[in-house]
Amino acid sequence: MMRVPVTLLLSLLVATPVLAQKPVTPTGVWQSPGGNTRIRISKCGQNICGKVAWASERAKADAARGGHPNLIGMNLFEDFSRTGPNQFQGRVFVPDINRRFNGTLTVDNPKTITVRGCLVRNTGCRSETWTRVGN
């Protein structure tokens, strides 16, 4: 009977989840934490982007005060490219203040994503967890 070293078995057990992890794409409709905005994430060339599919009156008013009276259809998640099996990096546009920030989008599970934007080099960062509301 052949004996397999314990270290070999342990390394196979640890490596298996990494090998089995398939890349995911967060296409679909996602709602902001406060429920004021819904974004449709879709393929944009080689990358993904997220356009406003629906917004509350409050969100529309906030965007208008920032100089953007037509919030519906605006691209808020811009040019996100894959950086890992469940992570993307790109730019986040915040119409209320008319600014773009470096950001990441992480697919936490089939029902939630975390979007993180930072002012400069991981300083002044803010994260939000968005919930899937449609395909």
UniProtKB/TrEMBL annotation:
Residues in the signal sequence: 1-20
Signal recorded as keyword: yes
Pfam families noted in UniProt: DUF2147
Domain DUF2147 stretches: 28-132
Keywords: Signal
InterPro entries reported for this sequence: DUF2147
Full protein name: DUF2147 domain-containing protein
